[in-house]
Design goal:
Elements (H helix, E strand, L loop, with lengths): L1 H36 L2 H6 L7 H4 L3 H8 L3 E5 L9 H7 L4 E6 L4 H8 L5 E3 L5 H7 L5 E5 L9 H16 L2 E5 L8 E2 L13 H11 L7 E4 L18 H13 L5 E2 L15 E6 L6 H13 L2 E3 L4 E2 L7 E9 L7 H13 L7 E2 L3 H5 L2 H7 L5 H19 L10 E2 L11
Parallel strand pairs: 1-2, 1-4, 2-3, 4-5, 5-7, 6-14
Antiparallel strand pairs: 8-13, 9-12, 10-12, 11-12
């Protein structure tokens, strides 16, 4: 009997001790891990980079806004988690009113039309229709990957969306994402051609600079990311999109230069590859082609092949396949563009001309004037460096991540005829 009572007391004591341990684990172990997760060491080494939908679902204030709103979504359907924002909002039965797609095949559009009544592609100059469609919503969610250059699809679209949001007094939420080109600044302009900031930071800057703070802006920030070097893997769509971004930072100005503008092949030659095209009427010797390729390679523009005929199955077309634009000390992709243009301008068989959008695209009339021989390259370089310093100073208060973007050292532009 005594043993039974003793055993019972021991069992009660053990049960109490067991409960005490469980309470200790429940209360103090999570605190330990929270402190560990917030430590500087983990932030610098092990913290995952989250952005887009992954960041949104972990942001309570942003999710509360989404849950209570009538929503329009602008999306490029690229999401590192695999499931896109419009799908999640539709599946979770949020009040989704419109889906606007910047990138979509006919098959993707048909898939969406079978599941949702108001879906279409957006782009170009159809913003009067977009304005009418936004009359029945109070929240626009912008989920589009920027390539890190001022005149890409995301950046051009953003400014129009901010304008309409301000006019209609609609909340604008931007799901921020890393700039795949890193923090390097290249080119002239109030916002340089390659600006080194994220789409969210650009929206912050424009809201004050262009809209007087009138846009009801909410940025869902990237988690665990700091601005650094070129990082193509850290963007929606993965490394292929990041590589395309690096190539476009060099090749995009050619869209506005004749004879290249009509012969710029933007379809993929291989994954992540683009080709600079010229009409076959341009006669370049094998030495000139080799020189051009070597000069571009020396400035970080990597090509898989020399110019060659029928690269896209057309007659009398010459092309140079560009596979990557590296970041090299002492030069930048904008300098590489200037050097390439200097080479083409010095060819007697090539008549170079610039369309009406060139000055706006590159950010200054002085670029064209320099390439036409009306200004010196030294004057252009001084102007570019001055505008970049001004941009870095002005954009500073609107940055969300560190370190700040930095100037790329411009290489020397050879002015002698080659």
């Amino acid at each position: 009997m005594k043993n039974e009572v003793g055993d019972s007391a021991e069992e009660k004591s053990y049960s109490f001790f067991k409960k005490l341990v469980i309470v200790f684990i429940a209360i103090f172990v999570p605190k330990f891990f929270i402190r560990y997760e917030n430590s500087e060491l983990v932030k610098k080494t092990n913290a995952p980079i989250m952005f887009g939908l992954s960041s949104l679902v972990r942001d309570k204030k942003s999710m509360d806004l989404v849950k209570s709103a009538k929503i329009g979504v602008i999306s490029d359907l690229s999401e590192p988690t695999g499931q896109t924002l419009p799908e999640v909002l539709l599946n979770e039965r949020y009040s989704l009113q419109h889906v606007f797609l910047t990138e979509a095949t006919e098959g993707e559009l048909n898939w969406w039309r079978q599941r949702f009544s108001s879906v279409r592609k957006i782009g170009g100059d159809d913003f009067s229709k977009f304005r009418k469609e936004c009359s029945d919503i109070n929240l626009l969610v912008f989920d589009v990957q920027s390539l890190g250059i001022r005149s890409d699809v995301a950046t051009n679209l953003l400014k129009n969306v901010m304008d309409i949001s301000s006019e209609l007094k609609i909340n604008l939420m931007i799901l921020d994402a890393p700039n795949p080109l890193g923090g390097k600044i290249e080119g002239p302009g109030n916002v340089p051609l390659r600006h080194g900031i994220t789409i969210g930071e650009l929206a912050n800057y424009w809201n004050e600079l262009e809209f007087g703070g009138k846009v009801a802006l909410k940025i869902v920030p990237i988690k665990g990311w700091s601005r650094g070097e070129w990082a193509p893997e850290f963007c929606r769509g993965g490394k292929d999109i990041g590589l395309s971004a690096s190539i476009m930072s060099f090749i995009a100005p050619f869209f506005h230069v004749k004879p290249f503008s009509s012969f710029l092949e933007t379809n993929e030659i291989g994954r992540g590859d683009l080709a600079l095209m010229m009409p076959g009427s341009i006669k370049l010797s094998s030495w000139e082609l080799s020189y051009l390729k070597d000069m571009l390679v020396a400035n970080g523009v990597q090509s898989l092949s020399h110019f060659k005929k029928n690269i896209v199955g057309q007659k009398e077309i010459l092309g140079l396949k560009i596979c990557e634009v590296e970041q090299r000390e002492g030069g930048d992709s904008f300098s590489a563009f200037l050097k390439a243009m200097r080479f083409f301008s010095n060819r007697k068989t090539i008549s170079v001309d610039y369309d009406n959008c060139f000055d706006q695209f590159v950010g200054a009339t002085s670029v064209r004037e320099t390439l036409q021989g009306k200004k010196t390259f030294k004057d252009l370089k001084d102007e570019i460096e001055k505008s970049q310093i001004s941009f870095m100073k002005n954009v500073g208060p609107y940055l969300l991540y560190s370190p700040a973007p930095y100037q790329a050292p411009m290489g020397k532009i050879r002015v002698s005829r080659v």
